[in-house]
Amino acid sequence: MIRSLYQLTNKGSLRALSFILAIVLTVSIFTHTEVFALNLGGISPIYTLLIFWSVATLWIHGIGLEIYSAIWKLLFLPLLAYFMAVIALGIIYF
Q1: Are 40 and 51 in contact (CB under 8 A)?
Q2: What is the tens place of the pLDDT at every residue in 24-63?
Q3: Among candidates 80, 89, 84, 88, which has minimal Cα distance to 9?
Q4: Do the beta carbons of residue 73 and residue 3 sit within 8 Å?
Q5: Where are the transmembrane segments (predicted)?
Q6: I want to staple 18 with a disulfide (CB 3.0 to 4.6 A). Which of 59, 61, 84, 85 is the partner?
Q7: For 66-76, what is the mean pLDDT?
Q8: Other CB atoms closer than 10 Å to residue 62's CB: what's the count?
Q9: What is d(CA 67, CA 60) in angstroms, rounded to the nearest whole number?
Q10: 81 contacts: CB under 8 Å, gap ≥ 6
């Protein structure tokens, strides 16, 4: 089940999307530090950790590192990272 979910995103165009989202989210965090700290850091540190996890997952997937273990594939599942990145970008910019 996990392998089939991971295979859905193991395509070149989705890897490019991961790379672009990782760049945009990283730049957004560095350029909008006050908004990031006040809107996300003040609510709960768990949101901040989830955003950092999604950035790390998107970088890993976007660069093209191959994950073989099912446990690590579950931990770094790009579908969840896409969802979290879109929410974070929505909070930062809107």
Answers
A1: yes
A2: 999 998 998 888 777 776 667 888 889 999 999 999 999 9
A3: 80
A4: yes
A5: 12-30, 36-60, 72-93
A6: 61
A7: 91
A8: 20
A9: 9
A10: 18, 53, 54, 57, 58, 61
Token couple for 70? 């099912």
How far is it, in rounded angstroms, from Cα 91 to Cα 2? Answer: 29
Spatial distance between the Cα atoms of 20 and 13, rounded to a whole number of angstroms: 11
| Phi, psi values for residue 11, rounded to 5° | -120, 160
CA–CA separation, 3 and 93 (whole Å) = 34
Residues 6+ apart with CB under 8 A from 40: 47, 48, 51, 88, 91, 92
Q: Quote the tokens at residue 51.
A: 């955003």
Residue 80: partners with Cβ closer than 8 Å, 6 or more residues away: 54, 57
